[in-house]
Amino acid sequence: MATSQVIQRAVGTSGILPVDLKKYARGIGLILTINGTLTCTLQFTGDNIQKDGYTPGSGNWNNHETLANLTASTSTLMLLPVVAVRLNVTAFTNGSVTLSVVQAEG
User: Fold this and answer.
1) Which one of 20, 39, 41, 87 is CB 3.0 to 4.6 Å from 68, fit for a cystine?
2) Does the predicted TM-score (pTM) go above 0.90?
3) What pLDDT, on a 0 to 100 scale, did the predictor assign at position 3?
4) Nearest CA to 55 among 7, 6, 15, 105?
5) Which burial class, exposed, middle or buried, applies to 48 when counting CB atoms under 10 A from its CB (0-12, 13-18, 19+)?
6) Domain that holds residue 26
7) Which whole-number Å values give the CA distances from 84 to 8, 30, 92, 94, 101, in the listed order?
8) Number of domains in the chain
9) Domain CATH number, residue 45
């Protein structure tokens, strides 16, 4: 099992978390833990993030249908294959949000 995390503590987008498509047979677990007062949305892309010159700021990012405008912690299973995920914090007073991506083989 592989777990990766990114933490965002301000308005803006987080770093990206690549998804290992070889471990995607049953989807990936997404856990968003919000501590404080903020609003965030999970975003995903199908872009080739390994391509020379790729920058996340000019990429094609889509908002998750249900993990949008969140103000409280939540989790879900994402079955749609994606290449990478990130957070977009749109309002911030204090605290942080942690995105954990859990991928399991088998």
Assistant:
1) 41
2) yes
3) 86
4) 15
5) exposed
6) 2-103
7) 16, 12, 24, 26, 10
8) 1
9) 2.60.120
